[in-house]
Write a structure and sequence with these properties.
Layout lengths: L1 H25 L1 E4 L5 E8 L2 E6 L8 H11 L3 E6 L17 H15 L4 E6 L2 H11 L4 E7 L5 H16 L4 H4 L5 H14 L11 H12 L8 H5 L21 E6 L18 E6 L5 H4 L1 H18 L1
Parallel strand pairs: 3-4, 3-5, 5-6, 6-7, 7-8
Antiparallel strand pairs: 1-2, 2-4
Helix pairs in contact: 2-8, 2-11, 3-4, 5-7
């Protein structure tokens, strides 16, 4: 009788594992405490690591379909689209506050059953990662900052400065710092597009930008950009998080491109993580697309070093 019961329990556990594994590997929707459905996919093996996409308002797809599958060979990757982004629903009450996005992350961690996880984020994600770690320090084992901004005004100014230098702009509509920063940004971006060189903010060639955009947009459904449109109404995202980074004690890998004008090629020098490793490369904003083998090797080495220290 005991053998029969034992066999039944094993069968039930195996069945439950298959039921859970299938929607995770194929993608599913997780419902937050305020009833917003977020797209999630879990793939790979190893220590859990959640990918926090940039944009603001993009999708995890651009990383998942680039170097993601290679990273999955040694880390369990959790891909998700933030509220109002990509494949996820918009906030019905319009709440895109930093605290709410942190709560989404924390609710997802609890739902998946991880006591701790690593964070891996790109670009605008640096803000959310830093703030989340400060408020949930016991839930983060390590963090990987890929070409991240921790100071949004600084990075916006990098866009403007690059455009002025690249095009030799002298008109005060571009150079007068008393003019609203976002207004100047719009004008500079417009001029860069007019001259066909906007791609140089992030990529070595126009073809690289086209390729990156095609991956981002290839989500198989209409692209939700609500968060990307509304996040600019929240002044809290304009904080300088570089000073706050000094309070983060977990091991951190900082990856930065020396030709990344989207966040600023020297922005990483202002980070103050006390337990950081920095990896630089001669490239732009998306190392997982431009230098995939180098990127995967750098992340793998960082993970191996963390295991040895445990």
């Amino acid at each position: 009788m005991k053998k029969i019961i034992g066999a039944c329990i094993v069968a039930l556990v195996a069945f439950a594992s298959q039921v859970l594994a299938r929607p995770y590997s194929e993608g599913f929707y997780f419902t937050t405490s305020d009833s917003i459905k977020l797209y999630v996919r879990v793939a790979g093996q190893g220590k859990p690591c959640v990918f926090v996409h940039g944009g603001p308002g993009s999708t995890s797809n651009y990383f998942e379909k680039s170097a993601g599958s290679q990273v999955e060979q040694f880390m369990q990757m959790i891909y998700f689209d933030q509220r109002g982004s990509g494949r996820s629903e918009s906030a019905r009450n319009g709440d895109y506050s930093l605290a709410r996005l942190e709560k989404d992350l924390e609710e997802l961690r609890r739902y998946l059953g991880y006591s701790k996880w690593s964070l891996m984020g790109h670009s605008f994600a640096g803000i959310l990662m830093t703030s989340y770690t400060l408020h949930y320090p016991q839930r983060v084992s390590s963090s990987i900052y890929i070409n991240c901004t921790l100071n949004l005004p600084y990075s916006i100014n990098s866009h403007i400065s690059f455009g002025i230098q690249e095009l030799g702009l002298t008109d005060t509509m571009y150079t007068d710092t008393s003019i609203n920063r976002m207004e100047r940004l719009g004008k500079v971006h417009g001029k860069l597009r007019e001259k066909g060189v906007w791609y140089k903010l992030m990529f070595a060639t126009p073809e690289a930008k086209v390729h990156s955009d095609s991956i981002t947009l290839d989500i198989g459904r209409p692209f939700n950009f609500d968060y990307g449109n509304k996040v600019w109404d929240y002044a809290e995202y304009d904080q300088d998080f570089t000073s706050l980074s000094a309070k983060i004690k977990v091991p951190v890998l900082v990856i930065a491109g020396l030709k990344d004008y989207a966040v600023g090629p020297e922005h990483y020098t202002s980070f103050r993580f006390p337990n950081a490793t920095t990896a630089l490369y001669e490239g732009g904003h998306c190392p997982f697309q431009e230098s995939g083998a180098w990127f995967v090797g750098t992340v793998r080495l960082f993970q191996q070093q963390q295991r040895r220290l445990l």
